[in-house]
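[Automated response] Your request has been received and processed.

Submitted sequence:
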Amino acid sequence: MSTNSTLLDRIVFYPILCEGWKQYMEGAIYHLAGFLLLLGFMGGSGTVGSIFIFGFFTAGFLCAALWGWLDACGLDIFIWNMLLVLICLLQLAHLVYQLRQHAFPEEFDMLYKQLCQPLQVPPQVYKEIVKCCEEQVLPLAKDQNYAVEGKTSIDRLSFLLSGRVRVSQDGQFLHYVFPYQFLDSPEWESLPPSEEGTFQVTLTAETDCSFITWQRKDLYLLLAKERYIARLFSILLGFDISEKLYALNEKLFAKFGLRFDIRLPSLYHVLGPASSDMELEKEPEENEGPAAPSGLSPTFVQTAPAAPCTVSPPAPPAHLRRPRPDSDLSASGSLLRSNRQASAERRAPLAPTQTPEL
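Generated structure:
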């Protein structure tokens, strides 16, 4: 205890000053060691950042060991710095092994940089995701169908890596699927794990495409086992579905000139063939009146023109225009159709009453 007190007194209360400073500076190798150690402390995080840090540490401690052996002539300085060099080399070997262990093919490496690295997903987690899809990249030729409406079963989840896919329903174009987007995210989210279903849209490749796919059962097992991966897929699928909804919203805006609310119960009734055209086709048939009997031929009797009547006939409604006497029923039907289309362009259609099961 007295020894510690004496040492404390010598350091704090009675410091021993240097009797004389050296008139010359240490060699360049000593200053190089300090500079390399400073660069090492400026490294970042992650595997690559750790390799940067321990790489400069190795070079700095090696320079310090050489300085202790050549200039300082201190055995303890040399031994300590060589021990630190050995430790840094072992750590570097471990980091390089980890980096090579998590190496992926070119397509999966690009996918990690584009999708997972901005979200700071660890490579170990990404390796589990890639392992679930068996590290296979599947091709999709031009004009080939990925899914057919009402026929293809929903038994997988796919992610487009390259190319462009067209999504349609009943022959009506809905939107495109571009690279680094899910092909069937709405079907995946709309169908519970215990149920089976079929696609309600048709997906056709417009160019040569490539994609990866996860089988439904295997992916559900992975999501049930890894909570972090389940949350990651929930975020990615939600973002992808919102992008598709906004794409439909932009299509409605371009078609009608009005901004629609994507929270409508259904957008297909607005995007698909308009039901008003079918109703307009039925109206001329109703205006024709009862059809003549099939067994009797129509007869035309020429009569003298009647005297003008003093009582004027009731005026037609304001929204209907009286057809010309010499025009046929098809002309009147096209006139009504054009009036309906002009009124549809001036106002937004109401929300549909029936919602398709998607």
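Summary generated for your ticket: The mean pLDDT is 75. The longest helix spans residues 227-256.
If you did not submit this request, please reply to this message.
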